[in-house]
Write a structure and sequence with these properties.
Blueprint (H helix, E strand, L loop, with lengths): L1 H26 L3 H33 L4
Helix pairs in contact: 1-2
Length: about 70
């Protein structure tokens, strides 16, 4: 349970930081950089989720002895 909350806070933190940077960069007129910041934040969270899904599949394989 502790890992779940930690992961949730990491994802929320990355989202908040990306949104904050996106807003600031758009206010400065750097719309292209703002879009890149948002894209990189999304890709980073996507890789985090892919890692978690990979761990889930490994646990499922170990439970059903599909090694």
């Amino acid at each position: 349970m502790d890992m779940d909350m930690d992961l949730l806070f990491k994802i929320a933190g990355i989202g908040i930081i990306a949104a904050f940077l996106h807003t600031i960069l758009e206010q400065l007129g750097k719309k292209e950089y703002a879009q890149w910041v948002t894209l990189f934040g999304f890709v980073y969270i996507l890789f985090m989720a892919a890692t978690i899904v990979g761990q889930l599949f490994d646990k499922i394989k170990s439970v059903f002895l599909f090694q």
